[in-house]
Structure formats: C-alpha cells, structure tokens
C-alpha cells in the first residue's frame, strides 16, 4: 500500500522561507559578508593618528563647512554672513580666546542665540588650530635646521611664518596686521621651539602649557570693530 504525504497549512508555512528569490539570497549574502568583514577588520573603524597636514585640511574644511551651515539660518535669525567671518579672522590678530562678552560686543548686529554663539566659537577654534599647527611646523623646522637658542627666532613681516598666517587670516592682504600680533607669534614660536627641543613633545598633553601662556596675551580689540560695516573703515582703500 502506498504512503500518502499530507501537507498541512502549518507545514506549508514552514516551507515558504525556502522559496527565497535569487535576488534576496544575494542581498542577504552581501549583508553577511559586510558583517563578517567588519568583525575581521575592526581597525578600519578607528580614526588614524592626526598629523599637521591632516589638521590643516580639517581646519580649512571646518571653515568651509561653517560657511555652508550659516546660510541655512542667516536670513531668519539676522545671522552670520561672509563679512562676519572675515571680521572674525581679523579680530584674531588681537584676541585668540575671545569671551562671550567680547563676541556679543563686536558682533552687535547679530541676533544671538545658541546656534550663533556656537558658530562663532567654532570659527575661533578653527583659527587657533591653524595658528598652532603653523607654530609647531616652523618650530620643528628650526630644530632640524640646527637652531639652538629660541632668541634667534624672529617673526617679521618678511618671514615665511608671517606669510603663512597673513595668507590665511588676511587672504586679500587688505588689512595692516598689528605689530602686537607679531610679538605674540614670536612668543608662540619660541614656546613651541623650547618644548620640542627639550623633548616635552613626548608628553601627549605637552601643548596645554603653551595654550595657557598664549591665552594671556590677548589684547584689546579696537573699538572700530564694534560698529556695523566696520570692514569699510579698517580695510585698505
């Protein structure tokens, strides 16, 4: 007597998952492969050690991104404009670590809110990052060139370091950089030089003491920076 194979509704449901289309199988295979690769090579998820060149690029990209971000709310909140960015860069020649009070005083034409304040803070953070990268770069170069005394390092209007800084903060070269900034730049360069020459850069937090010194060298921002349309008054004709 032959045996009859009875297929119940329950059994039919159990068989359905086996009837996957070939496209579904390929998709599942790709997802599985990606998951396995992620486990086999976790190091790809780690951020590489940052070097001065990458930091420079990041700094530039940070400012470009800032410009893109500010356009999304500038008209609605009487926000920041490209002229405000230029003004902030010029203010950096006087203050590297502006307080919130300073920002509100010299950007009085802006309607402040958390987003605006955050954007201004981010700008000055990017400015400092570029500044310190250049200082470390030229300090290490001086050590490699055989300079032994920090007092031999000078920052003048014809030095390569000055050109690098002027080209970043005063790209149009239409503003007279104050001599006080040259003095601060010289102090900063010597601080980095002494730290590198003495091997202090082996300590991961070696720059913090330099930041503390430089933060105390801010000077008064000229009153003319606080007026609306001040760029017309402070730039060369």
Explain the overall architecture:
The protein has 237 residues and is mainly α. 57% of the residues lie in helices and 0% in strands. It is built from ten helices and no strands. The protein has helices at residues 9-15, 22-40, 52-70, 82-91, 100-106, 114-144, 160-169, 179-197, 208-215, 231-234. Helix 3 packs antiparallel against helix 6 (114-144) and helix 6 (114-144) crosses helix 8 (179-197). It is globular, with a radius of gyration of 29 Å. The protein starts with 8 loop residues before the first helix and ends with a helix. The model is unreliable at 1-50 and 68-77 (pLDDT under 50).
Index terms:
mainly alpha; globular; 10 helices; 237 residues
Looking at how many chains there are and whether they match, the oligomeric state comes to: single chain
- Biggest sheet, open or closed, and with what strands and sense? none
The outline comes out as globular
Q: Give the CA-CA distance, first to last residue.
A: 110 Å
Question: What number is the mean pLDDT?
Answer: 78
| Structural class based on helices, strands and sheet pairing | mainly alpha
SSE order: HHHHHHHHHH
Q: Report the radius of gyration as a whole number of Å.
A: 29 Å
Would you report the number of β strands? 0
What are the segments in which pLDDT stays under 50 over at least 5 consecutive residues? 1-50, 68-77
Helix content: 55-70%
Task: Give the amount of beta strand, in percent.
Answer: under 5%
Number of helices: 10
